[in-house]
């Protein structure tokens, strides 16, 4: 039995919205029609994917497993379509993902020189969506900050990058050049604890207004730096990003007791596009070990 990808997309919409009504509106279809499609998928798989209770539409254990597998599968399906269409064009096309703090212009310029028949585009990504851009085919290759999910990508390590703590410039520690995490234990961490597993202090929960409907604190770098400047807490980030978002009301101090994170180049496994290897070699030569 082959999965009907259309029904899988419907299932993902319901799972993400936690509501058949909202998912139907998002998909521009009626709620009964959507329910029939999801029920047909359940019959194909021989499992129940959702239950309805006082909390609304809730995934079963089987539903959670399908959602975990379906999201990257749908992204890969979209990537295949985009790459096939790109391959059908006469002109070769190559898209590079980059993020703040990693200067890629010299690499792109050198690659364009040695591959004059390739039209190169650069596309801005961030730490939170770097995997999505690689999976769904929006970029062919991407400069990333590790870690990435294992087994999905070819990874070319380039250089280690220190981590820094962003504090309000008015904070007594702001005059220091470096601190340890323990020095910051009286401040709230302005990001998910999973980003900084070594953290032993409080984690910022935010106001109801800041959390919005999702119940989470602001997640963008700009929002977190605003919170830092207002005295809400501290934010741990790579030094390159701190340099990019430099501002007078925020001080960034090197974290002496946290290991640097690796900046790398990544692209999906099993791709044979020759430009990938050529670009990776140039990146390794210009940014890799021994270049500084």
UniProtKB/TrEMBL annotation:
Family matches, as InterPro entries: LysR_HTH_N (IPR000847), LysR_subst-bd (IPR005119), WH-like_DNA-bd_sf (IPR036388), WH_DNA-bd_sf (IPR036390)
Statement: the UniProt record of this protein carries the keyword DNA-binding: yes
Keyword presence, Transcription: yes
One Pfam family here: LysR_substrate
Keywords: DNA-binding, Transcription, Transcription regulation
Superkingdom, taxonomy of origin: Bacteria
Occurrences of domain HTH lysR-type (ranges): 1-60
Membership in a protein family: Belongs to the LysR transcriptional regulatory family.
Protein name: LysR family transcriptional regulator
């Amino acid at each position: 039995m082959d999965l009907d990808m259309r029904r899988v997309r419907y299932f993902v919409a319901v799972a993400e919205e936690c509501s058949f009504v909202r998912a139907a509106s998002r998909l521009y279809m009626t709620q009964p029609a959507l329910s029939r499609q999801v029920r047909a998928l359940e019959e194909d798989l021989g499992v129940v994917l959702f239950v309805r209770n006082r909390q609304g539409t809730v995934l079963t254990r089987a539903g959670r497993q399908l959602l975990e597998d379906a999201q990257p599968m749908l992204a890969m399906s979209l990537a295949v379509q985009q790459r096939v269409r790109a391959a059908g064009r006469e002109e070769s096309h190559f898209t590079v993902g980059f993020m703040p703090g990693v200067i890629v212009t010299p690499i792109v310029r050198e690659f364009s020189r040695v591959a004059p028949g390739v039209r190169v585009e650069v596309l801005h990504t961030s730490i939170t969506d770097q995997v999505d851009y690689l999976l769904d085919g929006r970029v062919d290759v991407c400069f990333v900050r590790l870690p990435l999910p294992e087994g999905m990508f070819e990874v070319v390590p380039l250089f280690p990058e220190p981590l820094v703590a962003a504090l309000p410039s008015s904070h007594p520690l702001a005059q220091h050049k470096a601190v340890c995490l323990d020095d910051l234990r009286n401040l709230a961490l302005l990001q998910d604890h999973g980003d900084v597993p070594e953290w032993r202090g409080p984690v910022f929960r935010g106001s109801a207004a800041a959390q919005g409907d999702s119940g989470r604190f602001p997640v963008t770098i700009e929002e977190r730096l605003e919170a830092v400047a207002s005295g809400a807490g501290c934010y741990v980030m790579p030094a390159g990003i701190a340099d990019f978002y430099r501002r007078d009301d925020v001080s960034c101090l090197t974290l002496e007791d946290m290991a640097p994170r690796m900046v790398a180049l990544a692209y999906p496994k099993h791709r044979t596009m020759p430009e990938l290897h050529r670009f990776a070699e140039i990146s390794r030569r210009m940014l890799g070990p021994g270049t500084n």
